[in-house]
Structure formats: structure tokens, C-alpha cells
């Protein structure tokens, strides 16, 4: 059955953003601290929150917008 799944449907226990691995448990706990996925993703209530989380987990860099998208995608694919 697993062979029929797309690669995006497979749980990745250690997703990679840039060259860093993201600890899903820590990411999950941080998103909960900020009010959950929907609130973190609400750009009016929490502007640039995914960027702030990406900076926490990956560090500041020139590609923070892309890293924020990757962190958000890792959360959505693996935890929601």
C-alpha cells in the first residue's frame, strides 16, 4: 500500500529545511504556544509568524521567506 502513496503523503520524522533538520516535537510545541496552526498562519493576527518560527529553528539567513514556507510545509505535511 505504501508504494502507491505519493512521496508527499509519507511521514518524514526529521524534515530538512535548508541544511538543518527540524525537530517536529519542538515545532509542534512552539506552534501550540503561539495559539495553533490557524492562528500562526493568520497573517492579520500574527504577521510574519512563520518567518519568526523559521528564524528560531533554522537561524537568520538571506532566504528566510523560503525557509518559513518550508517550515510551514513541514508542519502541515507531518503534523496537521
Notable features of this structure?
single chain, 80 residues, mainly alpha, disordered N terminus
Please give a structural write-up:
With 80 residues, the chain is mainly alpha-helical. The chain has one domain. Helices cover 51% and strands 5% of the residues. It contains four helices and two strands; from the N terminus they run ββαααα. Strand 1 and strand 2 form a beta hairpin. The chain is globular, with a radius of gyration of 13 Å.
The percent of residues in helical segments reads 40-55%
How much is the average pLDDT? 88
The count of domains is: 1
The helix-and-strand class reads: mainly alpha
Report how far apart the termini are: 21 Å
Placed side by side, the strands forming the largest sheet appear as 1-2
Tally of strands: 2
Shape: globular
List the secondary-structure elements in sequence, H or E: EEHHHH
Note poorly predicted spans.
1-5
Cα-atom radius of gyration: 13 Å
Amino acid at each position: 500500500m505504501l508504494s502507491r502513496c505519493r512521496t508527499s503523503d509519507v511521514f518524514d520524522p526529521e524534515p530538512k529545511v535548508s541544511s538543518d533538520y527540524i525537530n517536529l516535537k519542538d515545532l509542534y510545541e512552539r506552534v501550540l504556544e503561539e495559539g495553533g496552526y490557524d492562528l500562526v498562519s493568520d497573517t492579520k493576527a500574527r504577521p510574519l509568524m512563520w518567518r519568526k518560527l523559521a528564524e528560531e529553528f533554522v537561524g537568520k539567513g538571506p532566504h528566510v521567506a523560503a525557509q518559513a514556507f518550508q517550515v510551514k510545509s513541514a508542519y502541515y505535511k507531518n503534523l496537521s
